[in-house]
Amino acid sequence: MDFLPSDVTVNAGGISFTLHKFPLVSKSGYIRKLVSESNDADISTIEIPDIPGGGETFEFAAKFCYGINFEMSTENIAFLRCVAEYLEMTDYAVANLVGRTEAYFSEVAIKSIAVAVTILHSSENLIPIAEKVKLMSRCIDTIAYIACKDNQFSTSVRAEAGINGLTSSMFSNLKPIVDWWSEDLTVLRIDFFQRVLIAMMGRGFKQYALGPILMLYAQKSLRCLEIFGKGRKKIEPKQEHEKRVVLETIVGLLPREKNALSVSFLSMLLQAAIYLQTTIACRLDLEKRMALQLGQAVLDDLLIPSQGTLYLMLKPCSVL
């Protein structure tokens, strides 16, 4: 069988593709404009360096242009939807890629928290186009809706944490009691995690019930800290900044209700806050919370290691 020789090279996301103009311009408004507006009547190279998802995602778009079937999945739908938007694969074909990805997204992708979280996590590196097509807002709304509908938490659920040594194990030993979907949320970047929790509260999720979810997220994101002892290791400035943002955001989301969190957990957060040199407001907030629950505290909860080998007793009167 004879094939027409290729007449264009597309450099997309660092990968070169040898293709044909006709199938591309027939289904991509973006490429159609590049070709029609080019000063070169016989343009042979097209540069698309900033394509969402890189060259791997463009390959799916190219297959679509050629009528080659491929499988959509929860892992690639965010990339496919964004590349379809970027390449303007909508009005230039009856069966366009925007329509197909939207259909998949609506019919399959946002029917469960796990799937919505997977797509939301994939969208983290697709800003701003993922925001433009409302991928993230729709995923966040789905998570909030299902979490509140499922609503299996109760006022008696309390996460208990204990200090088990003064090393990074302080976070890895937390075993909060959480809803079945809470583990899924821990993969999210802190700003996305914050947006999900705010959306949940907006739908009626009680703030006091966020405690176990926040504990689990703190466990996952802060457990690698080597805070105390002779073997203390200084983390990279970028990583330290990221963890500082995580911790300050978590503190900002903590329930205001008394006894919603254990003193042990608050103490752990305060130790991390001192190590990461968070804002004074963040540290004072944690101290005040602990002061209100002194009746539940044991001695270990109130001992905050200093920079040397001595321990400093937390004095609640200093923040009242």
UniProtKB/TrEMBL annotation:
UniProt-listed InterPro entries: BTB/POZ_dom (IPR000210), NPH3/RPT2-like (IPR043454), NPH3_dom (IPR027356), SKP1/BTB/POZ_sf (IPR011333)
Annotated pathway: Protein modification; protein ubiquitination
Keywords of the record: Ubl conjugation pathway
Domain BTB residue range list: 6-74
NPH3 domain: residues covered: 179-320
Signal peptide: none
Gene3D superfamilies recorded: Potassium Channel Kv1.1, Chain A
Family per similarity comment: Belongs to the NPH3 family.
Protein name: BTB/POZ domain-containing protein
